[in-house]
């Protein structure tokens, strides 16, 4: 079975992409509105792309009514945001934060999520997440005037203490249980893991 992308509607393309490109990591982005309200919203069109400088990118589309999302407006205004990653205990709250919240209602406050100050930017992070990265806006790309690709440069990292071996610079995978996005209302756990030995490459004769 095959499709030309141009033969599909945007919604159909979305279904094809999200049905197979998975699991996807989820950027749980905190930003600050003009009145100081802290916004937290999840985005699963997201990943990290570079380490020098540390760059990540997520896509923010418009709301169904055509209005810009609070996350985009806040980042456009301040140039700052935090990418938080959710683990299993926070998965339900992360999902609930994807609901429709007016700008005057902050998701962390409404859902009872604790905030903690960032170190180098004004936007707070979600205190209980296993990992968070303070970001400065690096570049914003407009796509068809209905979606923005927001690229951030990570300038400061926060890691839950018990998850990280500081000497080996390695995560304790037995303690880290991130949640991934599948499609629609479906998410996945990441505890069923496979380990392969180092790839050997082409063997000489």
Strand and helix map with partners:
Layout: H1 10-20, E1 27-32, E2 38-43, E3 46-51, E4 54-61, H2 70-78, E5 80-85, H3 91-96, H4 107-111, E6 115-116, E7 125-126, E8 131-143, E9 147-159, E10 164-165, E11 170-171, E12 179-181, E13 187-189
Antiparallel strand pairs: 1-2, 1-5, 3-4, 4-9, 5-8, 6-7, 8-9, 10-11, 12-13
Would you kindly provide a written description of the structure presented here, covering whatever features stand out?
This protein is an alpha+beta fold and 205 residues long. The chain is 15% helix and 35% strand. The protein has four helices and 13 strands. A seven-stranded antiparallel sheet has the order 2-1-5-8-9-4-3.
Helix content: 10-25%
Share of β-strand residues: 35-45%
Overall SS class: alpha+beta
How much is the radius of gyration in Å?
18 Å
* Biggest sheet features: 7 strands, antiparallel
Query: Terminal Cα separation, in Å?
Result: 40 Å
Mean pLDDT: 95
> Strand order of the main beta sheet, please?
2-1-5-8-9-4-3
Q: How many strands in all?
A: 13
Counting DSSP H or I runs of 4 or more residues, the number of helices is 4
Instruction: Assign an overall shape.
Output: globular
Secondary-structure element order, N to C: HEEEEHEHHEEEEEEEE
Which blocks of ≥5 consecutive residues have pLDDT under 50?
none
